[in-house]
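To whoever picks this up:

The parser on our side crashed when reading a file containing two proteins. I've narrowed it down to the boundary between the first structure block and the second sequence. Both blocks are reproduced below exactly, byte for byte. First block:
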Amino acid sequence: MIKNLLQRGLPAQVHDSGGYAWDAARREAYANDQASPLTLIAVTAKSNRSKADQDPSTWMPPAEGDRCAYVTHWVAVKTRWKLAIDPSEEAALAENATRCPNVPIKVQLAR
């Protein structure tokens, strides 16, 4: 599985956020990240297809009740892997976060 992921390259969002500069070991660590419970979230195939490689500036979960968790997870994964957040992405995250409870996010940086 990892071999196929590496052959296809990084997901577009990771690549565009700085992952393009990662060496093979870092890409493999990202692809196999099991240390964070935020890395993989089970979703329906329909939801996965509708999101594709969009960021929060162009896609949010259709159910408003899922948006706070989505914003939290997005920020945590970006922080964990030291990935950039572009201005439109940041604006969408900030706007949606205003409707979320003020809960600290704990993130362990990836090695």
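<<boundary where parser fails>>
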Amino acid sequence: MSRLSVIIITKNEAANIEDCLRSVAFADEVIVLDSGSSDGTVEIARKLGAIVKVSDWSGFGPQKNKALALATGDWVLSLDADERISPQLQAEIQTVVKNDGTGKDAWEIPRLTQFCGQWIHHSGWTPDYVLRLFRRGSAQFSSDLLHERVVMADGGNSGRKVSVARLKSQLLHFSFPTPAHHWRKVEQYSLLWAQQRHAAGKRTSMWRAAGAAFVTFIRSYFFRLGVLDGAMGFALCVAQAQGAFAKYFTLYYLNKTAAASHSVRTPRPE
């Protein structure tokens, strides 16, 4: 019978890891790859029976590939510590694994995210299909330091194309329990996003930052029906706009700082 491995990367996730691990207690193997937690995450994970390894942080994509390399199951389910598997989703996943994928190599899962205590059903957050369940050996994570994704490979010696389908039950995402959590992630993600693009030679302007914020709000609130999420939907769409501004403003700052540094180092012609 096929076996299921769950992989989770963590750092200071003591507030989340217990609920996350209890929701995947049905798995044959649970691997937690920690990158230096100081809040008891490792101890909690070990107490709940997870296989815990520690590794220096190398970015989201590379870190998840390290965790993937530790998995031994036929199927792999990748989770974040702030995500939960509902009983309905558990039943679907178990059916897939029991039937060895029912002819598929990977499955996308619809994710439902909570923002400051309210489930968000619009605003561009729903539907949010994420590829998280896949046959081991058929996929790996992209090398992106931020917003990594599962990259499927061809069917190896079989010569066939990999096949991806979708589950029906939702993956529950408790990503932003308070406004403070949101702002911390905006700061972290904006810097990583800007650093990646700056390293790739991308440039931007303050007008681009302002335009990104404006377009993001209009798209999320009106075209993606954030208005139907009520007052919290409005708050979320504003926050998304601020996040878009923060990304481009940070890139603008890195561009400007690098240009100033280059100007200082370059000798003037005589």
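After patching the parser it read the second block fine. The chain has a mean pLDDT of 93. Helices lie at 17-23, 41-47, 60-70, 87-98, 179-199, 206-223, 230-265.
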